[in-house]
Amino acid sequence: MSLAWIGLGANLGRPRQTLEQAVVALDALPETRLAATSAAYWTRPWGEPDQPDFLNAVAGLETALAPLELLGELLAIEAGLGRRRDRARWGPRELDLDLLLFDDRVLDSRELTLPHPRLHERAFVLVPLAELAPEWRVPELGRVAELLAALPDDELDGIRPAGFTISRAGRPT
Predict the structure, then answer these.
(1) SS3 assignment, position 41
(2) What is the pLDDT of residue 128?
(3) Is there a catalytic annotation at residue 27?
(4) How far apart are CA 26 and CA 46, in angstroms?
(5) For this structure, is 93 an active site residue?
(6) What CA–CA distances, in Å, run from 131 to 32, 39, 85?
(7) Is 98 a residue of the active site?
(8) 172 lies in a domain?
(9) Does residue 153 belong to any structural domain of this protein?
(10) What is the reported pLDDT for 89?
(11) Which of 17, 45, 140, 156 is deepest in the core (most CB within 10 A)?
């Protein structure tokens, strides 16, 4: 089994319910088990500022799926929960699932780049990831806790705890 870290984000519709539905779908993937979920965080939009704040979290999956198989499953979950791909790249969205890390693999293909190419620049990824795996070594970049500590203050200013953990629907948070 491999350990994959997934970034979750949404800012359209009902973000909390969408992320909870996404966690249920992640846990239901074949040959996969949900290992951990972080607290949720409200974050300023990245890239295109004129949109609602995002709700973000990170999930850890133990999986026997290969990275590209897992990516295909993530895209299917996004589509099933209303993700439209006809919007601007960093624009508003119903759901975004990013494959951030997959064990210590480094991959640079047309379909997938591992580790995620901008994870070390984004508080909305590093804060929840550090909550779950501060000592995780991001290939070619360093430990998660070190990457978080290196972020500029203005990046960290845009993240606020939402006060709950994204979990499978019906489970205590």
Answers:
(1) strand
(2) 97
(3) no
(4) 25
(5) yes
(6) 22, 8, 30
(7) yes
(8) no
(9) yes
(10) 61
(11) 45
Active-site hit among 33, 87, 96, 171: 96
- Looking at residue 22, its amino acid is A
Distance between CA atoms of residues 116 and 119, nearest Å: 6
| Confidence band for 46, pLDDT divided at 50, 70 and 90 | confident
CATH number reported for the structural domain that contains residue 158 in this entry: 3.30.70.560
| pLDDT (0 to 100) of residue 82 | 80
110 given a catalytic annotation: no
Cβ-Cβ contacts under 8 Å for 93 (sequence gap 6 or more): 9, 10, 11, 12, 83, 84, 87
Residue 92 reports pLDDT greater than 90: no
Catalytic residue, candidates 50, 83, 153, 154: 83
Which domain range does residue 34 map to? 2-165
The one catalytic residue among 33, 50, 87, 98: 98
In the chain, the number of structural domains is 1
